[in-house]
Amino acid sequence: MFEVDRVRTLWELVEYRARASGGAPMFFDGGGGPSVGFREVRDAALCAAAGFRELGIGAGTRVMWQLPTRVETIVASLALARLGAVQTPVIPLHRAREVGFVLEESAAEFVLVPGVWRGFDYAALVRGAARGRDGVRVVSLADGLPSGNPGTLPEPPQEEDGRTRWIYYTSGTTSAPKGVEHTDASLIAGGVGLATALGMSADDIGSIAFPYAHIAGPDYVVAMLVSGFPAVVLETFDAERAAEVYRRYGVTMAGGSTAFYQAFYDASRRRRQAAPGAERDAGPDTGPDAVPDTGPDAVPDAGRLIPSLRLLSGGGAPLPPELYRAAGRELGCAVVHGYGMTECPMIAMGTPYDSDEQLAHTVGRPVAGARVRIVRADGSEAATGETGEVTVSGPMVCRRYTDPALTAEAFTADGFFRTGDLGRLRPDGHLVLTGRLKDIIIRKGENISAQEVEDLVHTHPAVAEAAVIGLPDRERGERVCAVVTLARDGDGHGGSAGDGAGALTLAALGAHLRAAGLMTQKLPEQLEITDALPRGGPLNKVLKSALRERYGGRGR
Fold first, then answer.
1. DSSP output for 113-157
2. I need a labelling partner for 475 at 20 to 30 A (CA). Which of 25, 51, 90, 144 fits?
């Protein structure tokens, strides 16, 4: 693996790998486009950088982009890195509410969009969100990346300690997204930690089927650059389609989140049961609770969903031990889960060499360069095996939040970042996560602020009180559940779960939230109406743990 101790910029890695690997493939287009090599990607990024410069983008220019997962998108981000622009990636799922906030808060000068993608006009979305703001230029990449003469480019900017190059927005316990500032160096440290833990090498073939606009996108590209392996790029994820493409290219590493594991598991079971002569299961389903009786040896390579796959890895949501065992047995590969967040993309990661017990019940050891410390409520360091808040320091931790008050709250005096998660370190050095101090829901790897959804649910005229919680979901990791009490009319009528249940439906609530601008990803998938929300403690807070216990067995 490339020695990266002295590397400070993403562009340095691009240049190094182009020299070291030349025309060796870097990206395979899962949509059927041509493959491109490391040197070709470097050259394309240089031309795009020159084109962007002609538009007025340079070092320090604030560029927001809302682009799908394509080779072209990755090249665009590398071109912006060559210029030293400050990039603010936004996932394509976001709509006017989120885009407008990020546009204003990040002070973006340029916004890159795909034009119309999957029937949605992103250029119109951004223009509407930018209305009233001067100086925002929308650049559509519908006809491809801009191109110019690389010979006109100035020398690459040199990374200065603490120079922000990336701003990511993440949902947290507050309703407004938090802006997280990263340097090139912090993203490089995260990618190196990933590559080291998983033993990635030039012999591997990886995959990018998750939103590249997540911090995991550039981090994965860093891992590719330091290790020298190519990856298949898919715009959207569908397990059957992805498996077909992965078989074609011989993918050895796949994943993204718990939802991906479940999707591949289900696809494999369906495929095997549809094969001629296959025996049908007596049970009703193929979920992780019904662990297959057979181990990997009972599924020959020819029968495996992706015969070349050695590793299924990811993070973003808890991995139930039952799913770990089921997916590993069904797919015949190692299932390796990790732990990170937008503020620190790599905190801990399992390895293919860990034991089954370690992989099933922990998120691995802290990655290279990360120091994890468990602290008690009083700030003192917890003993080994004792549960407390997980804090982390190291070169992969973000520089700060865009909000100074959030920064002051999130970092300790000696520079450790407070994750808001609860956990413990075992004697073997592995980290076990046990819960959250912060109130977020992780659905398909996406952070959803419960407070944001609650605030909007409260605006429905039929709702008196509301609590939004995440409930375990086999396909999504967690699903959004709204628990409400009903408002009484002016004469004191209504308000009872029994009498007024028909006054509010999930469909009606969803329509109200859509009209309020809430993105589809955040809409409640379960509605529960109750007479009163359970409360307790000196502040009479809603006991969400009691609600999770009460309603967790319903729905899916």
1. E-SEETTEEHHHHHHHHTTT-TT-EEEE-TT------GGGPPPPP
2. 90
